[in-house]
Amino acid sequence: MSIMQVIKARRSIRLYKDNKVPDKDLLELIEAGTWAPSGSNIQPWYFIIVTDDHVLEQVSAFSPGLLGNPPAVIVACCDKQLAFEKGGELGRGELCVMDLCMASQNIMLMAAEKGLGTCPIKSFNGPALKKILKLPDHISPELVLSVGYPKNSPEAPLRKATTDVAYFNVWEGAQ
Amino acid sequence: MSIMQVIKARRSIRLYKDNKVPDKDLLELIEAGTWAPSGSNIQPWYFIIVTDDHVLEQVSAFSPGLLGNPPAVIVACCDKQLAFEKGGELGRGELCVMDLCMASQNIMLMAAEKGLGTCPIKSFNGPALKKILKLPDHISPELVLSVGYPKNSPEAPLRKATTDVAYFNVWEGAQ
Exposed site from A20, A36, B78, B158, fewest CB < 10 Å? Predict the structure, then answer.
């Protein structure tokens, strides 16, 4: 598959089969994530891969956005201490999350090529997840990715046309 | 190329050849970007593709992070009004930037497959760029991507090992 094919094949999946995803594949997704760019190459990320049914149940209970009973969940976290040490307030507040989102997109594309579905979720209770996953104070869960074999093949939601969101040189070609 | 090969081939490029990048290719990068996921599918992004030498010069003057004389720059922007209408304060403050970063990663991977180099930059003067690009008040430049043909092939900066940043179920395997 070309990269455009993979990019277009990725869907936000909200219904999963029961099959477990092999640990090896999940780790390969994380490896793809670690190859994202990061400001000053600080790689301010940690990924908690949840596959244990009991932990999954607890994470689900505090993540209303998590749908379709995924057999695995990746909780993408920022190391806020490292981000502050290397990038000050801007690093801790914004840059580390931007880095993490680029890493997460790598993860979702890698999954798409493997025939795995994913869905990025922001609707979760951060303090509860920190407690469940035993995260240290400086590790902040920023994004939850569901992962599994899709039960359905949802159509792609309508995209805005490229020409409606891209302008050359100045806004709306107002040269 | 497999997706992992593209992900690993992407480098942050800070030295470019003079050759111009065809508009068609730049628009294809944007198309790749528009296929990223976004919260509630709001697609809160706009991309200003700067190829005009005069505008490039102005953008460079206010972007200390922009290095190596790229023949093109993509200024990735959030529509803060749309993000607020659809997602409230959280949408305007954080979610739209997260969506934009996933779109930007698509753009950088698409570029890598085409043999184009990119570099994501946060070190720029936002208000100055808004003025130069004639952006409306509600359109906020969040990330600048340089784009062009790489003059060199920098080695990949060292990555943290997957096993150092990924844990199963709880932090540091503290089951």
Answer: B158
pLDDT interval class at B173 (50, 70, 90): low
- Name which of B48, B105, B110 is nearest A106 (Cβ-Cβ): B105
Full-model pTM: 0.98
Give yes or no for B67 touching A (CB within 8 A): no
Q: Which residues of A touch B132 (CB under 8 A)?
A: 170
ipTM of predicted assembly, 2 dp: 0.97
Best of A48, A98, A160 to mutate (most B CBs within 10 Å, chain B): A98
Q: Chain B within 8 Å of A42 (Cβ-Cβ)? A: no
- Interchain pair A165, B47: CB under 8 A: yes
Q: Which residues contact B158 (CB under 8 A, 6 or more apart)?
A: A41
User: What pLDDT band is residue A172 in, cutting at 50, 70 and 90?
Assistant: confident
- Could you name the CATH architecture of A22-152? 3-Layer(aba) Sandwich (3.40)
Distance CA A96, CA A77 (A): 9
For residue B175, pLDDT beyond 70: no
- Cα separation, B114 vs B6, in Å, equals 10
* Contact status of A7 with chain B (Cβ, < 8 Å): yes
Rounded Cα distance, A110 and A112, in Å? 5
- Put simply, whether B60 touches A (Cβ < 8 Å) is no
Q: Both tokens of residue A163?
A: 């020409």
Torsion over CA: A14, A16, A20, A23 (sign): negative
Residue A173 has pLDDT above 80, yes or no: no
Total number of residues shown for chain A: 175
- How do beta strands B72-79 and B45-50 pair? antiparallel
Q: Which helix (H) or strand (E) holds B99?
A: helix B96-113
- A-chain CB neighbours of B113 within 8 Å are 2-4
The residues, ordered by sequence, that sit 6+ positions from B172 with a Cβ below 8 Å of its Cβ are none
